[in-house]
């Protein structure tokens, strides 16, 4: 009888925890969904072991739910995990469950951890951990694991577009072995001499994106995204 009672208490605690996590995540998603489209200027600075990548200026375009386009004269190294992939996952409410994972101090904020677990078979996502500011209802940090790109840690900072949940700075920490580089950059990595490889044996790289001059909900035609090639 005691064992059954203990199991019941555990189940009820888990259920309440899951409900709280779902409510918080729903608020974050609602803020995201208030953005129908946007364009923004981006300054992209990558620090990837073994390769030299110059800073690049680009313009990013997004439209619900997963249309995304980068316009740049240079090579823009840009992970999808901090942009369309998260939006696409969270937009499909029946494809995942949310579980409360406690709290963590991030930049002086007591952030709530919500773990997002896919409930559909063969999902590209394996797991997503989201640390959320419960007062401002925005994601401060995420740790996203996918089958093809491994685990990517993302830190978000916000400015004058926080009402839309749009960050001013995004910092990615990526696993170099699993992160998909543009073909031209990948070729440079393979051609790096042995001496350079010994000097820089870091397993992770960072990509810092500074965003400015957002234009939100101004309307972007679907035709604008037609020439965007899907990533493998």
Topology at a glance:
Blueprint: H1 2-33, E1 37-47, E2 56-63, E3 67-72, H2 84-91, E4 96-106, E5 109-118, E6 125-133, E7 138-146, E8 150-158, E9 167-175, H3 183-190, H4 194-199, E10 204-216
Antiparallel strand pairs: 1-2, 1-10, 2-3, 4-5, 5-6, 6-7, 7-8, 8-9, 9-10
* Beta-strand percentage range: 35-45%
| Rg (CA only) | 19 Å
The helix count comes to 4
Output the helix-strand order: HEEEHEEEEEEHHE
Question: Can you describe what's shown?
Answer:
A hairpin with an 8-residue loop joins β8 (150-158) and β9. The longest helix is centred in the N-terminal third of the chain and has 32 residues, at 2-33. It is built from 4 helices and 10 strands. The chain is an alpha+beta fold and 232 residues long. A 10-stranded antiparallel β-sheet has the order 3-2-1-10-9-8-7-6-5-4, covered by helices on one side. It has a single domain, classed as outer membrane lipoprotein receptor (LolB), chain A (Clam). It is globular, with a radius of gyration of 19 Å.
